[in-house]
């Protein structure tokens, strides 16, 4: 497995297998971030999202829909995407750090958690779900 650094990022694939992207930890950022590079687009999420999302998924005790959506679109209720922007989560709002690019949390974080061995993830064409081990 890759080290998850800028020089050795995780190479990931979205749950439906339609896109490849990389992610790496940037612990020196303020706040510490996980950087997601999708083509020429850079998205950044709170680094703590890895632990926070895993903990939340464990509390759900079963499968949760990903519900990926752009920042300007609504997220499906009770989905990873909805939790990633909810005032009820540990950061009290968006895990996305870059205004205009804060969405797609449900698209890009679950495959990272799967790579890290923290979750099970379905890989269907549509309506993918995730659950903690």
Produce the secondary structure layout:
Elements: E1 10-13, E2 20-26, E3 33-38, E4 41-46, H1 49-60, E5 64-65, H2 80-83, H3 105-115, E6 119-121, E7 129-132
Are there runs of 5+ residues with pLDDT below 50, and where?
none
Order of helices and strands: EEEEHEHHEE
**Structural class of the secondary structure composition?**
alpha+beta
Count the DSSP helices: 3
Report what the structure shows.
This protein is of the alpha+beta class and 133 residues long. The protein has one domain (10-125). It has 3 helices and 7 strands, in the order E-E-E-E-H-E-H-H-E-E. It has helices at residues 49-60, 80-83, 105-115; strands spanning 10-13, 20-26, 33-38, 41-46, 64-65, 119-121, 129-132. The longest helix has 12 residues, at 49-60. It is globular, with a radius of gyration of 13 Å.
Quick overview of this protein structure:
This protein is an alpha+beta fold. It has one domain (10-125).
Brief descriptors of the model:
133 residues, alpha+beta, four-stranded antiparallel beta sheet, three-stranded antiparallel beta sheet, 7 strands, globular
């Amino acid at each position: 497995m890759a080290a998850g650094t800028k020089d050795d990022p995780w190479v990931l694939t979205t749950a439906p297998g339609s896109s490849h992207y990389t992610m790496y930890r940037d612990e020196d950022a303020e706040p510490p971030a996980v950087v997601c590079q999708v083509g020429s687009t850079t998205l950044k999420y709170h680094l703590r999202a890895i632990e926070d999302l895993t903990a939340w998924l464990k509390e759900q005790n079963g499968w949760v829909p990903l519900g990926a959506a752009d920042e300007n679109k609504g997220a499906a209720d009770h989905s990873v995407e909805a939790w990633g922007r909810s005032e009820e989560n540990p950061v009290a709002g968006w895990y996305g750090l870059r205004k205009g690019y804060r969405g797609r949390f449900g698209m890009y974080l679950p495959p990272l958690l799967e790579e890290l061995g923290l979750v099970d993830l379905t890989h269907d064409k549509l309506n993918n779900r995730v659950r903690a081990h």
